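User: quick one, fold this
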Amino acid sequence: MAKKWHWSELDAIDIIGDLNAWAVGWMDWNILVDLSGGPSHGGHCNSLVMVDTQQQKLLVTIGYYLVGQIFRSAVPGSFRIGHYSNSAALQVLTLTNPSNEIVVIILNNQEVPYTVSLEHKGKYSGAVNVLQHSIVTLTYPDW
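Assistant:
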C-alpha cells in the first residue's frame, strides 16, 4: 500500500509544482497500463487506472482519488495566486476559483504530521492538522 501511495504522491507533487510554475493544465502520460506496468519502453509505468488482464477488470488506483481531489478544486477558470510557506516539507497550491473563493491545497508527503495556519489580509484560519501522507483542500469563500 505504501508503494502505491508513493507513486500517487509523485503525481500530486508534479501537478502542484507545475501549477505553481504557471502551467495551465496537466496530463498523465499513461491512460491505462496493465498490472505489470506495461506496455512500456522499459521499467514499470503507473497510471490512475490499471487493467487486470487476467480477470478483465479495471482497477482505480489511489492516485485517481488524489489527483481527483486536486482537480475538483483547480477547475477551469481558476487562477493561481502567490503564497508564502515557511515549510519546504509541504507542497502548497493556492488558487482563486470562478466563485471568487480562495482554495488552498496542501500535500504532506512526509512521515510526520504538520499543524498549519493560514493568514490572508490580516485574517487567520486557525490551526489545521495535515496528517502524514495526506492531502488537504481548504476553501475560503469570504476571504
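User: anything notable?
Assistant: The chain has a mean pLDDT of 89.
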